[in-house]
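Take our chain:
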Amino acid sequence: MRMSVLDVGSNTVRLMVADTGNGVPLPVHTEKWKLRLSEQVESGGVIPEESVRQLVKAVALAAETAQRWGAGGPLAFATAVVRSAPNRLDVLRSVRTETGVRLCTLPGEVEAELTFLGARRWMGWRVGSIALFDIGGGSLEVAFGRGRLPDFAASLPLGAGRLTREFLDGEDPPSEEDLRALRRRVRHQMRDVAARLRWEGPQVAVATSRTFQQLARLCGAPPGRQGVFVPRQLTRGDLRGCVPRLAALPAAERAMLPGVSAPRALQSLAGAVVGHTAMKLTGIKTLTICPWAIREGVLLRCVEDGGAWWADIAQKRDEAAPVGPTSLRIATPKA
């Protein structure tokens, strides 16, 4: 069986077409469109009309690509940048009217749950209990669990793009005062989740997302061209040394460092601060970088629980979703 999943993130729209007949999502084609929605949002988080038109065009191209690869309509979802937008209903309505694709927004804790499922399947049962971290553009997802789905999942407004706009959008490189303010925000937001993870004592800690992948590369992990099966880790000590290194450079020079792409150079410092603070507060010394994340989690959940699971999510009225960031949302998913 061939399926496709479409992920509308803060920076990029990503399509993955995969064969799932054996219960494992094996990619056959991937494609991405760099829209950088988070950089275009207006005051209050409103997504402007021109950005909506760009999104509609990207979704239409993704749907055509999925059809061409024999996958049918994609399972399409949007993360924090659309979820938090006051005009998100207009955005979702425009996408569906113009493309026929039902784009839905997922609550942050559901993102964490699905990312955890992808990481669990990649890591296997032998690793025991897992703590998961995923830094996106708008939010940080955290989860912990011993089984297939997490025992708890949390979403925090600590995305690398969001924090860059709030704290590091002045001097380049930023002032020490701005960095201290950023660290205070991360410590405050992480306090409750960190206490829970310390109490749980996970046997292994896993990180997903492009932010963690690039930080691991900056700290010496093998490059992506060596393939997904090469082990990659990120230690707290290495990341601690990475923060002042990034802070001393303007964004243009960060882009010259190994692993730091030009589009993410500006937010790389905020991502490093979030990652290091999260590891320090939770007592975690090493993160294993996992190539499977939310897109694989969506496909796995549909394969294992049936298509009705996704249909139920996609058909729920989005009016119930909260507008703007919340300080902490924790959910205990049902099996």
